[in-house]
Amino acid sequence: MKKTYKIDVDCANCANKMETAAKKTEGVKDAAVNFMLLKMTVEFEEGADPAEVMGRVLKNCKRVESDCEIFLK
Amino acid sequence: MNRKQKKNLIRIILASVLMIGFIFVPVDGVWKLLLFLIPYFIVGYDILIKAGKGIIHFQPFDECFLMTLATVGAMIVGLMGDGDFVEAVAVMLFYQIGEWFQSYAVGKSRKNITELMDIRPDHANIEKDGELVETDPDEVEVGTVIVVKPGEKIPIDGVIVEGESAVNTGALTGESLPKDVMTGDEVISGCVNLSGVLRIRTTKEFGESTVSKILELVENASSRKSRSENFISKFARIYTPVVVIAAVVLAVLPPLIFMMTGGDPRWTVWIYRALTFLVISCPCALVISIPLSFFAGIGGASRAGVLVKGSNCIEALSKTKTVVFDKTGTLTKGVFEVTAVHPEKADENTLLHLAAHVERYSTHPIAASLRAAYPDEADGCEISDVKEISGQGITALVNGSAAAVGSEKLMMSVGSEVTQCPHDHTGTVIHVASDGVYLGHIEISDVIKDGAEEAVRSLKASGIKKTVMLTGDSKRVASSVAVKLGIDEVYSELLPQDKVEKLEALIEARKPSELVAFAGDGINDAPVITRADVGIAMGALGSDAAIEAADVVLMDDDPRKITRAVGIAQKCMAIVKQNIWFSLGVKLLCLVLGALGFANMWTAIFADVGVMVLCVLNAIRALFVSRL
Q: A with B: how many residue pairs have Cβ under 8 Å apart?
């Protein structure tokens, strides 16, 4: 399953860091951050609960880039 | 400017004023340091906080941490040595100016590009009890009748059930000439209705409509990353650590060597030089400008009616040296037209008149083109006894005389002798006889598209080395078209699978750096398009298979768009290369000058921020493709 979230981040390098952090998160199969459109696309592992996984993704992203934001709908 | 940017701008201005003012305050030592700490904190407090968080989260090479280290280091050096604190504050200030500019420029170009691509309709009007209700296009079911007022975008693909108007397809095709539509015509979403009210019965859901497909394609384009982008993200990952380690070595090693050789270690000098290194350690200019260039290039291309599926396609297209065309539908119209009339015993008009009459009831494509050549066919003439002889032609009684229209074989069977024509015909020849007397013949052929010749010529001018044409058509027709267009190589009488084979042979024979592109109409050629290094689908509006298979989708079927696509890709890649070399070059130069003591922190921060600004401005150039 794939979902797209709106994000807010200041610099391109920070966006790359978020992408790496999201990819490493448990329950995430693949993730891509589009800095130009300020969007994050997350592909979840089979059977993973998106809401729960996104909580972890946000936490991991905050760890590498403290003023980033992911808008969870 | 958003709120954050405004706030940061105020901080920058305030800190600059304070910093310049404090230069003239006559205090020294610790007092001076405390004074300068005021603007330092004003402009840099968030950096300091982020640096602290970075350390807690084990992100030692965070750029905020490095900036903090560099400026705090500069202050300590100032305290121990020359008492200069302006530099530390200035470095922080310039860093923030750079960040501010980056945020502003990127925000601005993001807005520009997304506005360019803004073909997403906001609502669909549905008539309910005589009143128009604005509805979310997503909620409109297939088969609903929607109303599109003049000036509105058509939200969903469909068929016009009432009304006529002109629509502007500019947002989709880059074509500025409006297209006239009337009841019964199919219309695609994303076009702007110009003059009259249209009632449209939707044939697709919003998510399946052209406009959604295109948006999806363009928005996902940047996730297909080019090799340059991958290179940059790898480079960024190792660049910062390497520079930081180099800084540590620079701070420690030379003084130790001087100490051991009995010289003056001059610790502050070397530490200062090392701090200069840290200022240059952020790879920002590269990391921001490369994706921005591609994004702008893809945005600009989509504005011109060229959809590029990813940054990797831009890269591949720019390296294309061989362009292979399909003939029918790509270089030629794929529609038969009368191209020559050679009468023997009657005039041209009589010949066309007779032919059109005999073919009145036939559904064969040739019949349609004969009728099209004589527009006033429905006159008072009497036609009866129409006999269609399969593979040969048609005979009929026209005003009482026995007319025959068809092949040479048919002429023989009605007892009229065909005069061999001195002209060289490359199309299909239709003979006409009346009461057994041979009247003459008409040539029908597939017509070359307007601009096809220009397309081939301009491709050559833009650095394409070889053009090739593949076709299932006969050798005679193929070579005639190729000669007219100036195509280098022709392969004719090919079955679809032969086309794939030929293309594979071409790919096999090429150099790794010189790619092969294939342009076809996208419906029959999907396998060939998939196989090519760069697959270009033409006139692909509404054809999902083509959009799926191709790397580059041309919204209309103008062959000149191929040249345009190549031009856009080449410009975009040129900008990417300029940015890579320029920013790497300047950084490297500053590192060397810094190590040797020729560049101070001022130079370093100027190099960092200045290069970034220039690269961002350069990247935005990729958006402007109108003159390509």
A: 55
